Recover the amino acids of this structure.
């Protein structure tokens, strides 16, 4: 069986990895640019289980288990130092308490921290303006570039053909099947097609006459010069400021700071915004005053490939029998990638996902209006 | 001569921001990194305060020789990112909305 995966990001490579693990021999992955060129090498490399829908919590629990399982086999670097969700307002802390109850139903050990406990977890946090926090000890971070390169080299060793700089321009259908993909470098025939191309999945699948509701929303992270280890948690999130500003410190000591700002959907990848920097910095500096003295060394753009309910789209693409999608991760593709690989492999090989709850995330949900509901919406 | 040059590969620094040597680049290529952008990111070339001023062209030339690609092709995806030089955070926070 010949399989063509469109998109050589972390999702596409994990899909290829799992297919090969299941005995498939003819797996090709194409990418419009270089491997990892999209959101994969542009994200912060952080992961968590503390989500607000059963779908996310169940799948992320499994995904993190899988990351850790593969850690030794693929020599990944991963640390679990937790996420610190900071509440400035007492009402938000009440919302966190409800969320913790929700997490505990799924065995996710989040907990509420008093101000003294917050100080213990992160002594540098300005607790004068804070009501408390929620802590997710399952959360963590990884140097995403190193881990991605290790996965890339491994899938090539396993016999996966990775073809960069090959843009899919049209999916050619024949009856109820996709027969071939026309690309910028010729036509590729296959028996099974998987589109894992983030926001570009929409344009690719549109050529087969199917609408995929994904919109690329620009994000603007920036990074400082390296400093000695300063903060303890993997990520600190200022939940009460719109766009939830957040920051992490990388393995080598740089701080990465980001915030979800209002922006023009599908703005070009190089439409940098100088105003992003103060918008991100100001609230974070209130929480962590030392940030007013750091040097900003670099700034880049990336996209969240957003769906209407902020959950990924997984599985078969009707009316085609041999077309699958794994896209629309809405900012969580890296952390979900191992479970993505296993889910799509099980869909292709067994006709259904190996975790039942993933069936709630098919493209079909938008047609029948059954969007994912977030059970616990925070403050 | 050949052996002497090989020894030098261990001490010749290509990227002074992140202490990357000629050997680091050759090893990464041998390991299976077959794209310059991937190599550059893996070794953090251009990630330091100098923004790649000294390392990128040198590294691209080593990669071009090893891969048989033209240097223009090797550098076709490389982009300088702002700011051009590191800027203190304090210049950005006056008058910003929260």
């Amino acid at each position: 069986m010949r399989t063509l995966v469109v998109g050589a990001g972390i999702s596409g490579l994990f899909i290829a990895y799992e297919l090969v693990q299941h005995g498939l021999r003819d797996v090709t992955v194409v990418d419009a640019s270089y491997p990892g060129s999209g959101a994969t090498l542009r994200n912060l490399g952080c992961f968590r289980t503390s989500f607000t829908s059963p779908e996310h919590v169940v799948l992320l629990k499994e995904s993190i288990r899988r990351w850790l399982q593969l850690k030794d086999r693929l020599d990944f670097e991963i640390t679990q130092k937790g996420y610190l969700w900071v509440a400035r307002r007492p009402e938000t802390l009440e919302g966190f308490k409800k969320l913790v109850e929700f997490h505990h139903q799924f065995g996710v050990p989040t907990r509420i921290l008093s101000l003294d406990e917050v100080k213990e977890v992160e002594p540098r946090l300005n607790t004068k303006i804070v009501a408390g926090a929620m802590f997710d000890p399952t959360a963590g971070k990884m140097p995403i570039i190193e881990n991605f390169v290790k996965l890339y080299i491994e899938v090539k060793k396993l016999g996966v053909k990775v073809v960069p700089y090959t843009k899919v321009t049209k999916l050619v259908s024949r009856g109820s099947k996709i027969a071939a993909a026309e690309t910028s470098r010729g036509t590729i025939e296959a028996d099974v097609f998987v589109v894992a191309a983030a926001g570009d999945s929409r344009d690719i699948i549109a050529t087969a006459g199917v609408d995929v509701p994904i919109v690329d929303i620009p994000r603007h992270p920036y990074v400082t010069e390296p400093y000695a280890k300063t903060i303890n948690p993997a990520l600190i999130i200022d939940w009460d400021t719109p766009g939830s500003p957040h920051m992490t410190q990388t393995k080598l000591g740089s701080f990465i700071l980001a915030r979800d700002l209002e922006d023009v959907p599908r703005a070009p990848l190089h439409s940098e915004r100088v105003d992003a920097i103060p918008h991100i910095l100001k609230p974070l500096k209130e929480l962590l005053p030392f940030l007013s003295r750091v040097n900003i060394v670099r700034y880049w753009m990336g996209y969240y490939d957003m769906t209407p309910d902020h959950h990924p789209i997984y599985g078969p693409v009707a009316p085609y029998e041999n077309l699958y999608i794994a896209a629309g991760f809405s900012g969580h593709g890296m952390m979900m990638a191992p479970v993505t690989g296993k889910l799509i492999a099980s869909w292709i090989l067994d006709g259904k996902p190996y975790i039942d709850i993933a069936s709630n995330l098919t493209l079909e949900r938008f047609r029948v209006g059954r969007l994912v509901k977030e059970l616990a919406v925070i403050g | 001569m050949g052996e002497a040059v090989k020894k030098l590969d261990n001490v010749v620094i290509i990227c002074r921001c992140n202490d990357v040597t000629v050997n680091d680049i050759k090893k990464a290529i041998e390991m299976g990194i077959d794209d310059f952008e991937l190599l550059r990111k893996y070794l953090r070339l251009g990630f330091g305060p100098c923004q790649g001023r000294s390392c990128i062209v040198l590294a691209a030339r080593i990669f071009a020789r090893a891969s048989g690609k033209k240097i223009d092709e090797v550098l076709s995806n490389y982009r300088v990112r702002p700011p051009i030089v590191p800027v203190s955070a304090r210049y950005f926070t006056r008058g910003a909305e929260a």
